[in-house]
Amino acid sequence: MMASNTATMGNLPSGIGICTTIPDILYLPELIFGGLVWILVACTLVVPANPQGWVMFVSVFCFTMTFIWVVVFACGVHHNRGTWATVDVAYHGIAAFFYLSASVALAKVTLEMKNEIDSRNYKLDISAVVFSYVATFLYFIHTILSAIRWKSF
């Protein structure tokens, strides 16, 4: 019998299994799109500061927490699998909610910039809005798939 690094839907992965199991395969796209939102918003003129500040907080927070989450799973630190599965669902649900609120705020700010002369910031913000909604979708799908896995414990 061969040992396998992949996990079934009822198990939490560890090691290289996070790159081969659903929903954990979504970590990499979450990091990529979240990082792109972070970079694009950081490149723009921050006007108005409050909604853009919220978008920056969400993108930096989710990027950092997702990276930490990947490291925790990759190192196999999660011993009580039921508790970790619950926290996994909760984190991804919160991240999806945060990203949705940040995406809406960013889209509103971007629409208000439409008639301004500086088209560079407008184009960067449009890209950030698109990537923000993609990140929202990824976190939402990850939440649903993590909830299905959590229910199987």
TrEMBL record:
Subcellular location: Membrane
Biological process, per Gene Ontology: myelination
InterPro entries found in the cross-reference section: MAL (IPR013295), Marvel (IPR008253), MARVEL-CKLF_proteins (IPR050578)
The keyword Aminoacyl-tRNA synthetase is assigned to this record: no
Claim: Transmembrane is one of the keywords in the record: yes
GO cellular component: membrane
Protein name per UniProt: Myelin and lymphocyte protein-like
Naturally occurring in which organism (per UniProt): Cottoperca gobio (Frogmouth)
